[in-house]
Amino acid sequence: MRVAMPILLLLCTGYPPLCFGQNLPDPPLVVIDPGHGGVDSGAIGTQGVLEKDIVLKVAQEMVRLNREIHGGALELYLTRYADTLISLSDRTGLAKALKAYAYVSIHCNQARRIGAQGIEVFVPEGGGRFTETSLQLAHAIRQNLNQHLGLKDRGVKMANFLVLQETTQLCPSVLVELGFLSNRVEEEHLKKKPSIAAIALVVLETLITYFNEGNNK
């Protein structure tokens, strides 16, 4: 598995970002939902890596990169900022209260088959006001993670996850599975700081480009 050198060089040297556009006068508000937390560890890797820790680090890194590299191009809110358990209703309730322009839930995968690997992006099943824009965002995220980081692409799928169903009429919403902690190679990759930073940057800049191209409310 490779990590895109241009992204790592960007983080180290301050080169121009991978994707960019004009700053929006009114930064779109995006809710980032790091899954699980507290007593709910989520997936547990072969080496004991916890899903709840990886996804929180990715979300926190998105906040940092948005501030330090993109000057606050997005207004980001996390459903949790620490190792705490937040109910599913409170996660989606935050997006509703803030009238989010997009909702991105971040997770890691797990499977009985240790060879299973790759990223998946889910959108709400059953249709809704933002089905088309959710699909556009989902395809952009999985394409960029695959092209820039070399992560195996398992495609975009529909699911009835509660966090997606509860936000489907509010804004574009996606659930991103960053890889399989049950796969030793992917677990090793996901626990590294440069990998976390690279993933955070790709997802962040995909969102920025998405809104700069006019895919907002």
Automatic annotation (TrEMBL):
Protein name listed in UniProt: N-acetylmuramoyl-L-alanine amidase
UniProtKB keywords: Hydrolase
Any GO BP annotation: peptidoglycan catabolic process
This protein's record includes keyword Hydrolase: yes
EC top class, as a word: hydrolase
EC number: 3.5.1.28
Catalytic activity: Hydrolyzes the link between N-acetylmuramoyl residues and L-amino acid residues in certain cell-wall glycopeptides
Domain MurNAc-LAA: 92-208
GO cellular component, one term: outer membrane-bounded periplasmic space
SMART domains hit by this protein: Ami_3
Keyword Hydrolase: yes
Phylogenetic lineage: Bacteria, Pseudomonadati, Bacteroidota, Flavobacteriia, Flavobacteriales
UniProt cross-references to InterPro entries, sorted A to Z: MurNAc-LAA_cat, N-acetylmuramoyl_amidase_3
Organism: Flagellimonas oceani
GO MF terms held by the record: N-acetylmuramoyl-L-alanine amidase activity
